[in-house]
Each structure stands twice: as structure tokens, then as C-alpha cells.
Design a protein that fits this description.
single chain; nine-stranded mixed beta sheet; globular; 670 residues; alpha/beta; six-stranded antiparallel beta sheet
Length: 670
């Protein structure tokens, strides 16, 4: 990564100094409530909530963003718990079958105009940091509430926040009422948008609500008897799409990896005619895991695949991970636990089908290989991977660069989760290229050492299990057809801002030449740039320009055949919501290259010719496989569903299975 305008970078460092040092100067006589806020970059939706003028309902994620923003400005001793603690508290209530409603009533100080001007002068010219005095801060308050449903992500994309089922049991827990004003209310009035209007709700007392139909509901909260209204919050209510499971398993790994003993769960659906577990087919979820029963069912029942498997007599066991972001090797223990439990629950001659979608296929692969190496019976005749990154996955380095730069510089809550996902152990193990850094000025593009560690650990366990027939599906084309997103092109741009002006350009690999002018007008060019970010502070101080990926010739990953994801449109959507209007030239990019999903280990994911070429006669580690048409990642098409049903044996034939075939069968529909 390269940057320009050194004295401007110093100005931005002084902004960081303001944030860190302001807490040292603050005292209760100046900073009422113990929370200081002076953001460099502002989101209009969040600002309106803070200013108390928000009239349109927001979403639960906005509650989280705003709370994180205020917590960041809390001085030591302020009664504002960390966002992680808030999430932990909410999770405990959800585990009891409750939907927790979090309510924040937070008083904070923000610079008045004269003091803001002093801070701006310090940013531009340096010198002594202005000290707040009585009257230099404007006293404000934010009152906002939201039901904190569990958040689910697909790769980096936050899925729509929703509750599955028309029946809801709400609660306003006392440990999720965050108040630094001394008010400490014991009762609220809440309209759950079920047609009954406002009702009195006491702390820690559950309230049962039955909605007449699915749809978006607006939860509105006000202080009982005070008439003060919190910002309303939208929540999607969805009908339960998954059938009621016949069993639910809690899974505990029998192994520990790098100090992690993973846990998980499984939903079990009996096949047609079965009254107990008889013919188990186990499938593990993908990254980052933690999916609800509805989400898991919808993933595996596309094209009615799950229902067709049940109709054939298979008992479907859908495996989830409590922490899908930890090591693949650790979560392999969760799959091992499920396999061992399935064996114990069935007759001694029962053979299993075991696999997974995306990362789940990689976890299942490691689990079975580990069991074979350590002489642990797994009784598995068929292994199935669905668009699994056997040779690695690709998140556009330009997108990674933007997320890492903005997170390391601003700590903006809206990019906190994507940054955590990218930096997780599981992501580092799977990403072909990983963009990272310790500060926003030392961003680098390379290969995480955790990726090599996983490869070595797989090799130490035989790479793949040897006993089962190995079936694999790729969402990518096998004839070399590209996905329509061109290499070395501008795919996304955005400009805007309220306090700081931002201009962003994201380019596809292997990048373009970026031309940058410093504050003196000197020109510098950077080859192979994939992300260019320009920040300008108002009132002088020049500009700060960051270029990511310069000088590194990476293959044409975004264009390559493979399962795709909407990386660019997702980023553009978030920028639009944040007040930075975007232009999206291309929506998607390759996520799991075809040669990776089909484990064509004779080819090299770091070779452009291998990456974008036809599969041809390349050697696969799989017994039989099928490609597709560069569809979205883990999409089950009619053709791939039919192929899987054809490959798997019919009910009962898993017993006394003969040796798996050794010939490779290559197929592609399109």
C-alpha cells in the first residue's frame, strides 16, 4: 500500500490524537454523561438518530452502529458497556427463546462551533491540543431502541435481519437498558405493531405477541408517562419455512486445535418412512456459520433438494457451528462429533453420506481424513462438497483493501463486522490472497501463514479421505467461460461525505495504474492498483490518498470461472446508505474458482492461465464432479440437484456398500 501527502497524513494522525486525548481532559462538569463524540466521517442515517430527528424506522443494525459510535467516545467509568458485551447479553436471552429489546438512553457531548473550529485548526496546523472548558461542548441525548435478533452473514454480506415464525416472545432485559442519565426507568410503553397499540412493559417480564401475517413490523418505544419516543425499528417477520426437526443435537468436538474446542448443533429431519435415525446424510454449513434452522433449510432445499432426499429415505442432518470463524481444523471436531453420534444411533452396518456447502465441505473433508489417519471409524461411503474452496477462495483485493483501510483508520462500526470476518482464522485459512495490516498506512496483500498451515495439516492427514466416493459440485464453468466482470477495470466508485470528503475507486485484478498528486502538485503513479481511497478534511490540510495493491501482479480472480458473489453491489449499497453515493459498473466477482471447487490440484490457483482456462484433462482429487455456469456461490441448480440425486445411492443400498469407484466421471450442464 502506498500513500501521499505526508503532512496531510500527520493531520489525520492529529484527528486520532483528538479522539484518544479528549477522554483525558473530560470531567463530569464538562462532559455530562461521560461520552464524547466528534466523528470524522458521519453516516446521515446515524446522525439523524443522534440528533433526535429520526422519524422513519431504522433497522437493528443501525442500533448496533449507533451504539458502537457512542461507546467509542465513552470515557473510563461511563455506564456504557462494550458492543461485545451487549451482544453476549442479547445472545443469553435469545438462548432462552426470547427476543431481547435493547434500549439506549445516552447523554453525550459534542463540540460547539467555536470549539470545533479550534479542533479543526489543530488538525490543519498542529500545535497544542485544545482543552475543552465549560461551555465548549454541546449537551445532547440519543434515545433509541431495537430488538436484537441474531445477525447472519453470507461471506461479507449481512443477510436481512428477521425473526422466523409469527409467534414472538419479547423481553426488555434490565441488562440491555443502557442509561447514563440517571433516569433508570423500570417500565416502558411499547407498540409491537401487532394491532393492539402501546402496552405497558416491565423490565425482565416476557411479552407474548402473535402476528397475523408475515411482513415488516415497526417496534416503537416510549418512556411510560413521559411521552418521550425512541427511534422506531423495523423487524422482518417471516413464516417458518423449515419443517420442525425430529431431533436437535448439541455437538461438542472430541478434539482441541490451537486451544479451541469447537461446539455446534445439528437439526435432524427423518426421511420418508423412518421413525428413528436410519439413513443419515450429514451436511455442514459454510462460512461464517451460525445459521438459523430456516437459513440452513433454505440453503439446502433449493430446487427441493432437501425434500427430494427425504423422499428417497435419507435422514437429513444439517450441521451448524457456534463459531464458524475459528479454525477449519477445530470445527472439524464438530463434524466428527456428529458422525460419531450418527453411528451410535444407527445399526452397525449403516453407512453415512457426509459433506458440506462451501467451507462446510472443507471442514467435513478434514474431519473424515483426520478420522482415517487416527483410526477412528466414520462409516462414510460418500463425501459431498458443494462449491467448496478446496484450493482456496477469493474476495476481491480491492474490496478487502477498502474495508481494512477504513476500519484501521476510522474504526467505523459499519465496517467492523466485515473486517472481523476477513481477519478471522477461517477466512485466513481459505483466502488465496489476504489483505491486512496493523495500521491504515501499512496495508499489504499476501498469503496468510494460516493458509499454509491448513494445507500442511490436510497433507498430514492424507489430503482427502480414502474410503468414500468423493463427489464435488462447482458453481463455475469448466470450459473457461468467464463471468462477465472484466479484468483491470473500474467496478465501483463513490464520492460524498458530511465532515470528511471521501472518493473511492475499486478496480479488478490485476489492477490499473493510479495517478496521484500530492499537496504540492507532484505526480506519482502506482501500477496494479486495485483500490484508491482519497480523504479530504474541510478547511485546509490537503488530502490523504491511499492506494492498495500497487506493484503486485495478481491473476484475474474477479473474472475467473467459478461460483460468484455480489461483492461490489454489496459494498455500493452500504456506501449509498452511509451518504456516499456509488456507481456500480459490475455487480459480482468470482469467489470460489472452478479449479478450486473441483480440487484440480494439478492446476495452480496462482497461475492466471490455469485459473481462467478450460478444465480440460486436469486431474481432480475427486471421484466424480460437475460444473455449472458461473452461478452465485452455493446456488443449487436443477441440473446440479439432479446430478447429486443420481450419484447418491437409493434408500437402503448404503448397507454392505462395495468399494467406491476409482474412475473419474466428468460432467457439466450448460
Amino acid at each position: 500500500m502506498a500513500d501521499t501527502a505526508g503532512h496531510t497524513r500527520a493531520a489525520f494522525e492529529r484527528v486520532r490524537t483528538i479522539r484518544s486525548r479528549m477522554h483525558e481532559f473530560a470531567d463530569p462538569s464538562i462532559l455530562h454523561g461521560g461520552v464524547f463524540r466528534w466523528p470524522l466521517m458521519r453516516r446521515p442515517d446515524v446522525e439523524s438518530m443522534l440528533d433526535g430527528v429520526q422519524r422513519d424506522p431504522v433497522e437493528p443494525r443501525h442500533w448496533r452502529w449507533l451504539y458502537s459510535e457512542l461507546h467509542r467516545g465513552a470515557i473510563a467509568g461511563a455506564p456504557v458497556p462494550s458492543p461485545a458485551e451487549i451482544e453476549a447479553r442479547a445472545a443469553r436471552h435469545r438462548a432462552c427463546g426470547l427476543m431481547p429489546v435493547a434500549i439506549a438512553n445516552i447523554r453525550y457531548g459534542t463540540p460547539c462551533q467555536a470549539f470545533a473550529d479550534e479542533l479543526s485548526r489543530f488538525v490543519r496546523a498542529g500545535g497544542s491540543l485544545p482543552t475543552p472548558a465549560p461551555g465548549s461542548l454541546e449537551d445532547k441525548a440519543a434515545f433509541f431502541a431495537a430488538p436484537l435478533c441474531k445477525q447472519e452473514y453470507h461471506i461479507l454480506r449481512l443477510l436481512p435481519e428477521r425473526h422466523d415464525g409469527l409467534q414472538m416472545r419479547y423481553v426488555v432485559p434490565s441488562d440491555l437498558v443502557i442509561d447514563n442519565t440517571g433516569l433508570t426507568p423500570r417500565e416502558f410503553e411499547i407498540d409491537f405493531d401487532d394491532g393492539t397499540g402501546y402496552r405497558n412493559v416491565k423490565l425482565d417480564e416476557p411479552v407474548d405477541v402473535m402476528y397475523p401475517s408475515a411482513g415488516h413490523r415497526c417496534i416503537r418505544v416510549r418512556l411510560a408517562g413521559a411521552g418521550r419516543h425512541a427511534t422506531g425499528c423495523r423487524l422482518a417477520i417471516a413464516k417458518q419455512s423449515a419443517p420442525i426437526p425430529d431431533e436437535t443435537w448439541s455437538l461438542y468436538s472430541p478434539i482441541t486445535f490451537q486451544g479451541v474446542t469447537a461446539t455446534g448443533y445439528a437439526y435432524v429431519f427423518y426421511g420418508s418412512g423412518n421413525t428413528t435415525l436410519t439413513n443419515p446424510l450429514l451436511m455442514a454449513e459454510g462460512f461464517p456459520g451460525g445459521y438459523s434452522i430456516n437459513t440452513l433449510w433454505n440453503i439446502f432445499n433449493e430446487q427441493n433438494l432437501a425434500q427430494d432426499l427425504l423422499a428417497q429415505g435419507y435422514d437429513l442432518v444439517l450441521i451448524g457451528f457456534d463459531d464458524g470463524m475459528t479454525y477449519v481444523e477445530a470445527n472439524a471436531g464438530v463434524v466428527m462429533a456428529a458422525v460419531q453420534y450418527a453411528i451410535n444411533m444407527t445399526s452397525s452396518d449403516t453407512e453415512l453420506v457426509v459433506g458440506g456447502a462451501s467451507m462446510g465441505g472443507l471442514v467435513a473433508r478434514y474431519a473424515l481424513a483426520y478420522m482415517e489417519t487416527n483410526n477412528i471409524p466414520h462409516q462414510t461411503s460418500y463425501y459431498v462438497s458443494y462449491d467448496t474452496p478446496h484450493l482456496g477462495a477469493s474476495v476481491p483485493v480491492g474490496v478487502q483493501g477498502f474495508i481494512q483501510i477504513v476500519w484501521l483508520y476510522t474504526q467505523d462500526p459499519s465496517v467492523e463486522a466485515p473486517a472481523a470476518l476477513l481477519n478471522s482464522n477461517a477466512a485466513q485459512e481459505m483466502l488465496i490472497y489476504w489483505v491486512n495490516g496493523t495500521t491504515y498506512t501499512d496495508i499489504t496483500t499476501g498469503v496468510s501463514p494460516l493458509r499454509a498451515n491448513l494445507s500442511n495439516n490436510l497433507s498430514a492427514n492424507g489430503n482427502f479421505p480414502k474410503r468414500p466416493t468423493l463427489l464435488g459440485v462447482s458453481n463455475g464453468a469448466t470450459d473457461g467461460s468467464l463471468n462477465g466482470t472484466p479484468a483491470s477495470d473500474y467496478v465501483l466508485s463513490a464520492e460524498g461525505g458530511i465532515v470528511a470528503s471521501l472518493a473511492l475507486y475499486v478496480m479488478t485484478s490485476p489492477g490499473l495504474t493510479a495517478t496521484v498528486y500530492d499537496d504540492e502538485g507532484n505526480k506519482t503513479t502506482f501500477p496494479n492498483a486495485v483500490c484508491q481511497l482519497k480523504l479530504e478534511f474541510p478547511g485546509g490540510g490537503g488530502t490523504f490518498v491511499t492506494v492498495c495493491g500497487e506493484g503486485q501482479q495478481t491473476p484475474e480472480y474477479e473474472s475467473a470461472p467459478g461460483g460468484t458473489d455480489t461483492f461490489f453491489s454489496t459494498l455500493g449499497y452500504e456506501l449509498d446508505n452511509g451518504g456516499y453515493p456509488s456507481t456500480i459498473n459490475y455487480d459480482s466477482a468470482c469467489f470460489v474458482p472452478t479449479i478450486s471447487a473441483l480440487s484440480l490440484s494439478s492446476l495452480d490457483v496462482y497461475s492466471n492461465d490455469d485459473l481462467i482456462g478450460s478444465v480440460g484433462d486436469a486431474t481432480s482429487d475427486l471421484t466424480a464432479w460437475i460444473g455449472s455456469n458461473n452461478d452465485k456461490h452455493v446456488t443449487i441448480t436443477a441440473q446440479t440437484a439432479a446430478w447429486l440425486l443420481q450419484q447418491l445411492p437409493s434408500k437402503g443400498s448404503l448397507r454392505a456398500t462395495t468399494a467406491p469407484p476409482t474412475t473419474r466421471r466428468v460432467e457439466q450442464f450448460g
